[in-house]
Amino acid sequence: MAGDSQQQSWVLMVTAQTPTNIAVIKYWGKRDETLILPVNDSISVTLDPNHLCTTTTVSVSPSFQQDRMWLNGKEISLSGGRFQSCLREIRARACDVEDNKKGVKISKEDWSKLHVHIASYNNFPTAAGLASSAAGFACLVYALGKLMNVKEDESQLSAIARQGSGSACRSLFGGFVKWIMGKEENGSDSLAVQLADEKHWDDLVIVIAVVSSRQKETSSTSGMRETVETSLLLQHRAKEIVPKRILKMEEAIRNRDFASFSQLTCTDSNQFHAVCLDTSPPIFYMNDTSHKIISIAEKWNRSEESPQVAYTFDAGPNAVLIARNRKAATLLIQRLLYYFPPNSDDLDSYLQNFPPSSYIIGD
Ligand code: ADP
Ligand code: DP6
Ligand code: CO
C-alpha cells in the first residue's frame, strides 16, 4: 500500500446523504431472516432529499485499529450480522483507489486489511416508524461503495442494502420504487427497481405528522418475526392480496390516478396494521391520535368528489399524508391546525414555510 511507509496518517473520507422512503404497499414478513428476503413485493415513494434523510461519513485510515460506528453522536456496536453483511459484501466488491493529492494508493486486496470509521446522523426520529433503518442502511452502503470504488449499479447495491434492513433497498432510488421479492434462495434477484422517477408525479405533496418521536417498543424486525410465526392473515395477505394490489398500484402510478393510488395506499396501510393486530400477542403501532388522523382524512375524502389525501402508517404512530397537490396540502394543514392546535412558537415556523413538510402533533 503506497503511502503507509511515510506516516500512517492519511485519511480518506466520503460523505453521502440518502432520503428515507415510505411504503405505499408494505413489506411485512421475511421468508429468510439472515438474507432478509420478504414474503411479498412492496412499493414505496422516496422522500425529497431535503426532507427526512440520513447523512453518513465513512472514512478509512491505516491508523484505524478496528471498524467503528457512531449513530447520532453515540458509538454503537457493529457486531450485529446486518452491519457485518453490508461491510463484507461491499469489501468483496472493492476496487483500486488512488488519491494523488494525498499520495495514497489502495489496491483491491488492501481493503480487507483496512478498517473504517462511520459517523451517521438522522435528521428525524430514529426507530420511531419513519424508516430510519431504510435511509440509514441505504446511505451506509452507498457511502462505503463510493469510498471503496465499487462499480455496481443501484439495483446491485440495493441487494446489499437489503441485507442491512429490508426497506433500505428501496432508498437507493428516487421517485416510486418496487422491491421485487425474487425467487432465488441466495437472494440474488431480491432487489429494488425504479418504477418512475421523482419528476413523474410531482404534484404530490408529502406531509409527515409526527405524533410521537419516541422509540417504538417493538422493532420492525421483531414485530414482523412474531407476525410470520403467528398470523394466518399474513399468509392470506402475502399470497392472495398483495400480488394483485402491486399490479393495481403500478397502474395507478403510471397513470397518475390519485383516486386509485389513495384507495390502495390507505387500504394497504390498514391491512398491515390489521396483520399486526392478528399477531399473537398483538402489536399496536398506531395510537388514538393516529386513529383520529385516519378519521379526519377519511371524512374529508368522502366529502369531496374525489380523494384529496392518502394516509399511510409504518411501524409506529406517525402519519405520512400524501396530498394530491399543493392546494390539497394547504387544506390538509388547515385541518391539522384545527384539530391539533400547535403552540404559538410552532405556528410561526409552520407559517414561514407553508405548507410545511412535517407537522408536529404529539410529544
Ligand atoms: P424505523 O422505523 O426507524 O426504520 P427500525 O426498528 O426498523 O425503525 O430500525 C431502527 C434501527 O435501524 C436502529 O436501531 C439502528 O440499528 C438502525 N439505524 C437507524 N438509523 C441508522 C443509520 N443512520 N445508520 C445505520 N443504521 C441505522
Ligand atoms: C412497516 O425494513 O425496518 O416500514 O428488514 O427487519 O430491518 P427489517 O425491517 P424494516 O421494515 C419495514 C416495515 C415497514 C414497511 C415497509 O417499509 O415496507
Ligand atoms: Co425500519
Bound molecules: adenosine-5'-diphosphate, ligand DP6, cobalt (II) ion
Main sheet? Answer: 5 strands, mixed
Radius of gyration equals: 21 Å
Look at the structure and give the mean pLDDT. Answer: 93
Q: Quote the distance from N terminus to C terminus.
A: 52 Å
Helix content: 25-40%
Low-confidence stretches: none
Counted beta strands: 17
- Work out the strand percent: 15-25%
The backbone outline, from C-alpha atoms, is globular
Helix tally equals 9
Encode the helix/strand succession as letters: EEEEEEEEHEEEHHEEEHHHHEEHHE
Query: Pairing-aware structural class of the strands and helices?
Result: alpha+beta
**What is the topology, as strand order, of the major beta sheet?**
1-6-11-7-8
Q: How would you portray this structure in words?
A:
This protein is α+β, with helices and mostly antiparallel strands. It is built from nine helices and 17 strands. The model has no long low-confidence stretch (mean pLDDT 93). The structure holds adenosine-5'-diphosphate (ADP), ligand DP6 and cobalt (II) ion. Adenosine-5'-diphosphate (ADP) binds at residues 54, 71, 120, 122, 126-134, 136-137, 140, 165, 219-220, 314-316. One of its GO terms (molecular function) is ATP binding. One of its GO terms (biological process) is sterol biosynthetic process. Residues 19-192 form the Diphosphomevalonate decarboxylase-like N-terminal domain.
